[in-house]
Amino acid sequence: MGPDEEKKYYEGFTNKTKFLKNDYYTLKRGDGYTSPPSSMPAHELNLLREYMEGINLKQIGQSLPAYKKPIMLSRFFKGRRNQQTKVHAIVSEEVLELLGRVSAVGRDFVALTTVTERYWIPFAAIESASVPYGISDMPNNHQQVIYDETLRRKLLADFSSTVLKNDVLKRQFYEESLEVHLDAWKGAKVTVFAVEKKQKGKLVKAKAGKLTLKRGKELSIINMKDIKLLKRSTPFQMFPTFVQWVKESFYSIWPKRRKI
Question: For position 195, what pLDDT does the model report?
Answer without folding.
Answer: 84
